[in-house]
Every structure is written in structure tokens, then in C-alpha cells.
Amino acid sequence: MYATIAVGTDGSETASIAERVALELARTSAGRVLFLSVYEDEPGMQRSAGIVKAARARAEAAGVAVGTKTMRAEAAEGIVELADRGMPASSSSATSGWAAAERSAREVCPIGSPATCRATC
After folding, report:
1. Structure confidence at residue 30 (pLDDT)
2. Bridge-partner residues for 5, per DSSP?
3. Domains along the chain?
4. Helix 75-86 crosses helix 97-108 at what angle (to 10 degrees)?
5. Torsion, CA 95, CA 32, CA 12, CA 121, rounded to 10
6. Which of 31, 59, 74, 87 has the fewest CB atoms lying closer than 10 Å?
7. Does residue 76 have a pLDDT over 60?
8. C-alpha span between 23 and 29 (Å, rounded)
9. Backbone torsions φ then ψ of 68, nearest 5 degrees
10. What are the tens digits of pLDDT across the range 78-111?
11. Which residues in 14-30 are b (16+ Cβ under 10 Å) and which e?
12. For residue 24, what are the CA distances in angstroms to 8, 10, 53, 70?
């Protein structure tokens, strides 16, 4: 069903819910989870590293294939860029910004359309 599910995480309660849903989807579809976290400064880098390390441990405990990526960037732009780097391209042309986010959402969103996913995920 889903080859790779990209999940932006910041360690918040809402992100934890998204992580659990992604792990369940990946487990039931024999897919992989890619946990993404961005940071803006040096202390944030340490925090992001800890967040994806903990998410990786939960995925491994659940028997789900997992990857992690962190990057120094503004949150929304960084997550889109990291997802783009970690996701297979849906076409041969490069995309960026919202186009990349929508492409990634179409590939991984369990709800359907990118607009629906952004409104509910």
C-alpha cells in the first residue's frame, strides 16, 4: 500500500500521534517510515537528533523498516526538502516548495488528497 511514509516530528504530543499512525500503516503494508526533524540552532540540533533517535527505536521495536533525517532549516521548508530527498520522485522533473509537499502528500497521505491530509493530519 505505502512504500515509504514520511513523518515530520518535533517530539510534541501531536507528532507522537502521527508517528504511531505512520508505524501502524507501515507495519500493515510492509512499508518503511522516514522520520524527519528540522532545527534552527545548535541546541535544536541536539534535540532533533534525540527525537529521531527515539522514533527510530520505536520503529525498530515495532519491526518496521526506518530511516531518519535531520536538517538545519525553517520547519516547513526543511521538512519538505528532507521529504523530497528521502522520497522517490514521482516524475523526472524536480519540484520544490508546495509542489513537493503536495507530491509527497499524494504518495504517503493515508487520507487521500493533499488538501484533505493537510487539514486533518
Report:
1. 92
2. 33
3. 4-120 (3.40.50.620)
4. 60
5. 60
6. 74
7. yes
8. 10
9. -135, 150
10. 777 877 776 544 322 223 333 444 444 445 444 3
11. ebeebbeebbebbeeee
12. 16, 19, 18, 22
Residues ≥6 apart with Cβ < 8 Å to 57: none
pTM over 0.85: no
The stretch 12-41 carries a mean pLDDT of: 92
Buried/exposed code over 77-86 (b: 16+ C-beta within 10 A; e: otherwise): ebbbbbbbeb
Q: For 33-45, what is each residue's pLDDT tens digit?
A: 999 998 999 999 9
Helix, strand, coil % over all residues of the chain, rounded to 5: 55, 15, 25
Percent of the chain with pLDDT over 70: 69
| Cα 27 to Cα 46, 52, 54, 96, distances in angstroms | 28, 18, 18, 29
DSSP one-letter code for 94: -
For the record, the C-alpha cell of 16 comes out as 507522537
